[in-house]
Amino acid sequence: GCHTCAQQKGDHRSPAGLPNTLPTPSHLWSHVALDLVCGLPNSHGLNIILTIVDRFSKACHLKPLKSLPSSTVTAKL
């Protein structure tokens, strides 16, 4: 459509709700956050880092990987 029509067109989306907060962990390693850092230079065949952070203590484990893991493999790590 034209620029004028695009400006006049209404927004049909529902308003965004309030963000949900994550539960507060009560002990070590009960709640973790996972992230993958990809696109790193290759080092000994490894170019991905899986970060695992304990939300209670903020302790962090880093696991170098050769390739992106499946969800099943990630759960086992």
Automatic annotation (TrEMBL):
<protein>
    <recommendedName>
        <fullName>Gypsy retrotransposon integrase 1</fullName>
    </recommendedName>
</protein>
<dbReference type="GO" id="GO:0003676">
    <property type="term" value="F:nucleic acid binding"/>
</dbReference>
<dbReference type="InterPro" id="IPR012337">
    <property type="entry name" value="RNaseH-like_sf"/>
</dbReference>
<feature type="region of interest" description="Disordered">
    <location>
        <begin position="1"/>
        <end position="21"/>
    </location>
</feature>
<dbReference type="InterPro" id="IPR036397">
    <property type="entry name" value="RNaseH_sf"/>
</dbReference>
